[in-house]
TrEMBL record:
SUPFAM superfamilies attached to this UniProt entry: ALDH-like
Record-level Gene Ontology MF annotations: oxidoreductase activity
Enzyme kind, highest EC tier: oxidoreductase
NCBIfam families in alphabetical order: OH_muco_semi_DH
Protein name listed in UniProt: 2-hydroxymuconic semialdehyde dehydrogenase
Gene3D superfamilies with a match to the protein in the record: Aldehyde Dehydrogenase, Chain A, domain 1, Aldehyde Dehydrogenase, Chain A, domain 2
InterPro entries named among the record's database cross-references: Ald_DH/histidinol_DH (IPR016161), Ald_DH_C (IPR016163), Ald_DH_CS_CYS (IPR016160), Ald_DH_CS_GLU (IPR029510), Ald_DH_N (IPR016162), Aldehyde_DH_dom (IPR015590), OHmuconic_semiald_DH (IPR017628)
Family: Belongs to the aldehyde dehydrogenase family.
The enzyme's E.C. designation: 1.2.1.85
Pfam families registered for this protein in UniProt: Aldedh
UniProt source species: Thalassomonas haliotis
Aldehyde dehydrogenase domain sequence ranges: 15-477
Keywords (A to Z) from UniProt: NAD, Oxidoreductase
Amino acid sequence: MDILKSYINGEFVDSGEYFDNINPVNGEVIAGIAEADEAMINHAISSARKALYGPWSQLSVNERSALLHKVADRMAEREQEFIDAEIADTGKSLFQVKTIDIPRGTANFRFFADQVKYQGGESFVTETANGEKALNYSVNKPLGVVAVISPWNLPLLLATWKIAPALACGNCVILKPSEETSSTAVLLAQVMDEVGMPKGVFNLILGRGKAVGDKLTSAPGIDAVTFTGASATGKQIMKSVAETVKPISFELGGKNAAIVFAHADIAKAIAGITRSSFTNCGQVCLCTEKVYVHRSLFTPFLEGLKQAAENIKIGYPLEQDVFMGPLVSRLHQQKVLAYYQLAREEGAEVVTGGGVPVFNDERDNGCFIQPTILTGLEDEARVNQEEIFGPVCHVSIFDDEAEVINRVNNTPYGLAASIWTEHLTQAHRVAAQIEVGLVWVNTWFLRDLRAPFGGVKLSGIGREGGEHSLAFYSEPSNICIKIDE
Ligand SMILES: NC(=O)C1=CN([C@@H]2O[C@H](COP(=O)(O)OP(=O)(O)OC[C@H]3O[C@@H](n4cnc5c(N)ncnc54)[C@H](O)[C@@H]3O)[C@@H](O)[C@H]2O)C=CC1
Ligand SMILES: O=C(O)/C=C/C=C(\O)C(=O)O
């Protein structure tokens, strides 16, 4: 059986302690994962610190940029291996992995390799009250050694979204991917090795969150932590970094709403919300879990969404036209099924779905689940307040704009929303009042890597994307030069 190993100071290392990597399509063990121990974590940190002050610090921005382009080139050459690995870990459809996960992984390196070349600083000519003059200007320095903690839902995409800008800005990185999805991270470590990334600049630590992640985030040798995952885990990490006052960048959970106004193009709204609720089995932090539909469109909308959900093909990742594979793990399947049960207990009407599909083959040992539509619950129901992270949405009626804005904002989360209306003035007006980091109008998950990306409230701290990422991974340092006249 394959053993996935950590990559520290340019070497793949095996701790001798293993846990299983499971294929969620059929529950079979596909590899063993060697869990890093404390000595390995310390070795990764000391190697990264050495590299930070060693050859890595000697490279110019252009040289770092060229090396990151080489990473992207090599990932593109090995694209099929990345595709196979991501599918094996997650069971996602080939279509999704080929069009979203893997190309975005490569694009993240190319984007930040270019973007960093245009990173500017500030400058001021200073005149003091007593007539002195000076030139103040800032230079960008790396933060140091950055711990990247990434989740299982878009494994390569979300890890590289952090690694690429961190390296572009001259930092060294220690990646801890989710224990559910380590395979593409191991391939990425191989790529780093192949392109000649200096030893210690990129390190990979495999293992479970509490056992390994916590040791990493609390270590004094780590200068900053960037994390995507559950809000509850974000709270743990905040406690863990408090002692050493590290900068953090958090992209956390969401309980995202879609609003279908009376002026919506209903066919567009149904197609868009089918995608926003069920893409990746609902396992994207941006997915819609609450839909508010104007009373005038409620019945045809619900009927259309039900038909669309029932037409979704669930199955093997490589099967033609499959849109939904399994959830990532048995544990996550149990979590989502518990919410389906809770919805019934809270009094929901299950419009469609609500259980597990039956295949009468090996897939019945996998982690599949039905796309599910609920209605009839109050906004205060737990199912309408807590992040489920599965292929499920609750559909409610609303009557007026002020009411729906209030209801959409009635959540501890604040990540994303989508608005469906052909009335552009209304779209502008409403978008400005929704308490989230991202609003889409008549679309969903249409991304521009330069745009600010992140959430408010329980959904995160800081913004990623373009200059926002570069700002997080850089430490501006001011230089003041006296001008004598
Ligand atoms: N992007 C998102 O918004 C995501 C949200 N979730 C939410 O989180 C729920 C639970 O999924 P999990 O896999 O448990 O997510 P998680 O947030 O616990 O895992 C994400 C990463 O954090 C690591 N981690 C866990 N505990 C840690 C700790 N104490 N210190 C440092 N690192 C730690 C994990 O090993 C993994 O690499 C999901 O049901 C979903 O609601 C999960 C994944 C992604
Ligand atoms: O950067 C993107 O395009 C996607 C981001 C998705 C997440 O952050 C998530 O699901 O956690």
